[in-house]
Amino acid sequence: QDSGKYKGVIEGCCCDYESVDSVNGEVLHPLLQELVKTPFFRYFKVKLWCDCPFWPDDGMCRLRDCSVCECPENEFPEPLKKPFLHGLPADDVACQEGRPQAAVDRTLDSGAFKGWIETDNPWTNDDETDNDGMTYVNLLLNPERYTGYVGPSARRIWDAVYSENCPKYPSGEMCQEKKVLYKLISGIHSSISIHIAADYLLDESTNKWGQNPELMYDRVLRYPDRVRNLYFTFLFVLRAVTKAADYLEQAEYDTGNHTEDLKTESLVRQLFHNPKLQAACPLPFDEAKLWQGQSGPELKQQIQKQFRNISALMDCVGCEKCRLWGKLQVLGLGTALKILFSVDGQNQLSESLQLQRNEVIALVNLLSRLSESIKYVCEQGPSIEKTMERH
Ligand code: FAD
Fold this sequence. Notes:
- The protein is mainly alpha-helical and 391 residues long.
- It is 49% helix and 4% strand.
- It contains 13 helices and five strands.
- The chain has a three-stranded antiparallel sheet with strand order 1-3-2.
- Helix 1 packs across helix 13 (357-390) and helix 12 crosses helix 13.
- The protein is globular and about 55 Å long.
- Residues 144, 146-147, 149-150, 154-155, 157-158, 186, 189-190, 192-193, 196, 219, 226, 314, 317, 321-322, 325-326 line the site of flavin-adenine dinucleotide.
């Protein structure tokens, strides 16, 4: 695999582009693709309908694809009401609008998440222990792709995220920790743009979907720092997952479907304790270097507050499907931050760390999204760049 112009060690991390591309392509991407399809990882609990705390709602759905469609109870296949008992293929679902791509199951309740503790994530705005208004979304039926959410509404969210919470740092002026927050957000933004370009509505009249290389170039590839931030974010989240590997391996993946659950456990083991990953990138990111100075605790609190603001902004995203993936990825990142900063004096994972089932689902799905974006950039970036730069 050719990583194109990206070579050498990824800034702020401990591995190089070439190793990341190769271990991602050979090991991580295939395992993650399998893992996110398992019954444990494909249902995400989310509060989709909250008022925006910053400005009045300006829902801007242009395409129907923008919405996460709900299926009335009688149309929802019985086995999916107890998704952990049956591994039903996604395309068996007949949705209200005749569209199998999206489904929210309001018939599930918190019992479905039994066996895991309920705890609030201090990095996010939502109270994860409050089940009121939560719905369960089958992520496989709601892929992250182009939705037609563009214009001032979308722009306002990104502007608020960048300008209010993590302004682009002037070189040398900002401390390491603030740079980290900026890079993480920018990395997720790159990944979202790549998924939009990878699954784009090319022709509305014929409903033809496919890749939009020009968009991938215009939004991401022509800006090397956006690509670098994507790799940085991937390694940051990967570090969180490997740091919590023992905890995650011992966790409860029981969904009632014995065969599927065994597969989930095996995939989790292969992914989190992977010898090839160990060899290629033993320490994806060194969090021990952060929060070391005297102002450490204060700084951490300040960044936590900023991150919670970013999380609250997700309620202002005027497109349901974008809000779903926005919330999932912010919770995933909040979980990575929670893991990386739950440490004892020796920077070992604190024994008191407790994760919610939903946090683990968000973390793994975020890693999978980033891994897929890296794969696109690695495999298609160089040829797209060549074509676009010729014009
Ligand atoms: P935008 O992507 O809106 O970018 C705005 C500005 O931010 C750019 O002009 C640039 O200055 C800066 N910028 C862009 N990328 C980066 C980066 N990587 N790092 C740093 N700065 C950057 N649309 C969909 O079709 N499907 C989705 O699933 C989807 N999910 C979304 C989730 C969230 C949380 C949000 C806020 C928006 C989502 N959108 C989604 C909308 C999408 O992200 C764009 O906002 C929209 O397509 C308009 O793009 P744009 O060209 O105006 O640039």
